[in-house]
Amino acid sequence: MLCRIANAAMIKATEKYDIGQSLPWAEVLDNLLFNSEGLIPAIAQQFDSREVLMMAWMNRESLQETLKTGRVCYFSRSRQRLWRKGESSGQIQLLQEMRLDCDGDTILLLVKQTGPACHTGRKSCFYNRVEDDKVSVIEAPLIDPASLYGKHE
Amino acid sequence: MLCRIANAAMIKATEKYDIGQSLPWAEVLDNLLFNSEGLIPAIAQQFDSREVLMMAWMNRESLQETLKTGRVCYFSRSRQRLWRKGESSGQIQLLQEMRLDCDGDTILLLVKQTGPACHTGRKSCFYNRVEDDKVSVIEAPLIDPASLYGKHE
Predict the structure, then answer these.
(1) CA nearest B94: which of B48, B57, B34, B142?
(2) Which of A18, A99, A137 lies nearest to residue B128, judging by beta carbons?
(3) In which band, very low, low, confident or very high, does the pLDDT at B1 lie, cut at 50, 70 and 90?
(4) Pick from B23, B122, B137: which is nearest to A20 by CB?
(5) Is A48 exposed, middle or buried (CB count within 10 Å of its CB: 0-12, 13-18, 19+)?
(6) Region for residue B132 given its phi and psi (left: phi exceeds 0; alpha: psi -120 to 50; beta: otherwise)
(7) What pLDDT, in 10s, does the model give residues A30-46?
(8) Tell me, what's the pLDDT at A149?
(9) How much is the pLDDT for B9?
(10) Minimal C-alpha gap between B87 and chain A (Å)
(11) Which of A15, A48, A65 to mutate to test the interface with B (most CBs of B within 10 A)?
């Protein structure tokens, strides 16, 4: 818990910064608020339309790989290994910009998504709307998910 | 773990649904993939500009209250209680639409944000950009955070 407080304070220093002021990424990376599993939530947003595509998890290694290669790499909790988005479906995400929030506990990825982000073939994973005591589908697949090999990445 | 698999299967049924097909919200709520603390991540996005404002956590009660009142209510992990966004700052979020992702483990809130979403006085919490081995501030406060009582909600 002490560790968490110390981490937060380091990144929260940017609260008072003017536009253009910066911290070294290496130091920030050491102080991101990864959870007890070493993971941090990452939101993927289409860079031009600003559609929110999905939320997944990253670890230290996937953050570094993403910045190095420019192709988004998450950490799959179900498979407990690095997950290079699109490795089975071909629907990759090219990183346009990476942002951090004020507390250093969430990542925002502005991406150029190839085809659908969702394993169902839909552009976005957020295709269910809650309204009037119902949850309704509001988006159709762009392509047949069977052509994405019919499996969740 | 068996419970998690059962939950996921219920919501994943919507994968095959056409636009307009629905499930009862009460059943979906019972099967959302809350974590071991009873929480689910929620992304807040400004409904018109599509700017991603923040990420926070909700529990079952905060989801129900948000739908009932139309004002976004989170669950504060630091204070371990319901957190009606804006209760100390006055900067509230009016719900325009609530969406769920394909796995039922993340919420997307389309909101009408009053003033800044961030406790620093900035519109969005994602004001730090990672680029060229630096993390740089890219957004200025809309208002002096001291006028928000100078404290994080």
Answers:
(1) B48
(2) A99
(3) very low
(4) B137
(5) exposed
(6) left
(7) 999 999 999 999 999 99
(8) 64
(9) 80
(10) 19
(11) A15
Yes or no, beta carbons of A100 and B130 under 8 Å apart: yes
> Which pair of structure tokens corresponds to residue B41?
């991540």
Exposed / middle / buried, residue A60 (Cβ in 10 Å: 0-12, 13-18, 19+): middle
Which residue has 């599993």 as its token pair?
Answer: A37
pLDDT tens for residues B78-120?
Answer: 999 999 999 988 999 999 999 999 999 999 999 999 999 999 9
Distance CA B4, CA B82 (A): 25
Backbone angles phi, psi at A106, to 5 degrees: -150, 145
Interface test with A, best of B57, B66, B120, B130 (most A CBs within 10 A): B130
SS3 state of residue A109: strand
In this predicted complex, what is the ipTM? 0.93
The residue type found at B105 is D
Test B97 with A133 for CB contact under 8 angstroms: no
Set of chain B residues whose Cβ sits within 8 Å of the Cβ of A83: none
The predicted model scores a pTM of 0.93
Q: Choosing among A50, A102, A152, which should be mutated to test the B contact, i.e. which has the most B CBs within 10 A? A: A102
